[in-house]
Automatic annotation (TrEMBL):
Keywords: Lipid biosynthesis, Lipid metabolism, Oxidoreductase, Steroid biosynthesis. InterPro entries: NAD(P)-bd_dom_sf, Sc_DH/Rdtase_CS, SDR_fam, VLCFA-Steroid_DH. It comes from Echinops telfairi. It is found in: Endoplasmic reticulum. Belongs to the short-chain dehydrogenases/reductases (SDR) family. 17-beta-HSD 3 subfamily. It holds the Pfam family adh_short. Its main location: endoplasmic reticulum. Its EC number is 1.1.1.62. Transmembrane segments: none annotated. This is 17beta-estradiol 17-dehydrogenase. SUPFAM superfamilies: NAD(P)-binding Rossmann-fold domains. It is an enzyme of class 1 (oxidoreductase).
């Protein structure tokens, strides 16, 4: 005889099994079936140019090289003109594609975006990668313990949040008018939970994920693809270049896998290792670093 409690238990077990099956199936589809991936021709068909913010280091640099290697011209946007020019020459030398550079400090407010908008005029932009980001510049600390908290918190919000919103606002209209285009917004696994001693950074990344999901839903029917990628630990300036391995990924390796998820998932961790960590709710080595007082670097590349 089935009493209500047994029925509830059976339904709960069935629901949990379905969730597990769905999760495993999604992992296989997004990361382990290479023939399911959209080809380079699909990405090139979105437009001749890719725009990458924070393009002179870490994930942004990897995205710029990855896209140019597959035939797209690249607009590099960052705050250091010397690094921009060096990276542009390197891309042209290695991949033979055209480049443009725009100098911008994304810790600034609305006033910086006029020059960016002017620099992008007339370009057939198929891919926008909103990558630039920053956090506290020294050790993990309580919110008010960072140096000059008023300025620092403003810089983080402008760099991590304002940049995504304004760059989307600039590039999206032409994508909508052409009924094609891809926007990739780089978030972080920290978007999933509140992170003590990491409060502002994790909150801004939660915004990026929610914003991306909403805008993606709004413009899906217009032919625009919006994807959030939320990596775990990648060996960059932000993470102080930890040793790479199963948990910590190299930017080039991570980006190579992340690009293959385009068109398959609107929200991905970028690589199989980080997706498994996300699915299991593992907070990776960053948690240990917080409580050991290790430093976190600032990255506004």
């Amino acid at each position: 005889m089935w009493d209500p409690l047994r029925a509830l238990g059976a339904l709960t077990a069935a629901w949990l099994l379905l969730r597990v099956a769905w999760g495993v199936g999604r992992l296989v589809y997004v990361y382990l079936l290479p023939w399911a991936c959209r080809g380079d021709s699909w990405i090139r068909a979105q437009g001749a140019w890719a725009v990458v913010t924070g393009a002179t280091g870490g994930i942004g640099r990897a995205y710029a090289h990855q896209r140019s290697r597959r035939g797209l011209n690249i607009v590099l946007i960052s705050r250091d003109m010397n690094k921009l020019e060096k990276e542009a020459k390197e891309i042209e030398r290695l991949h033979g594609t055209d480049t443009r550079v725009i100098q911008a400090d994304f810790t600034g407010g609305l006033e910086i975006y006029g020059a960016i908008e002017e620099g992008l005029k007339g370009l057939d932009i198929g891919v926008l990668v909103n990558n630039v980001g920053m956090s506290y510049s020294s050790h993990f600390r309580k919110l008010l313990d960072c140096e000059n908290p008023a300025q620092r918190l403003s810089d983080i919000v402008n760099c991590n949040v304002m940049s995504v919103v304004q760059m989307t606002r600039i590039v999206l209209p032409q994508m909508v008018s052409r009924h094609r285009g891809i926007t990739v917004n780089v978030s972080s696994m920290t978007e999933n939970h509140p992170w003590p001693f990491f409060a502002t950074y994790s909150a801004t990344k939660a915004f990026v994920q929610r914003f991306s999901a909403a805008v993606g839903a709004e413009y899906l029917s217009e032919g625009v693809t919006v994807q959030t990628v939320s990596p775990g630990v990648v060996s960059t300036n932000v993470s102080k270049h930890p040793k790479t391995g199963l948990v910590v990924k190299d930017p080039q390796d991570w980006t190579e896998q992340a690009v293959h998820t385009l068109g398959l998932s609107s929200h991905a961790s970028g690589c199989l290792s980080h997706e498994v960590q996300h699915s299991l709710g593992i907070r990776t080595v960053e948690t240990a670093d917080i409580f050991q007082g290790k430093s976190l670097g600032q990255e506004v590349t």
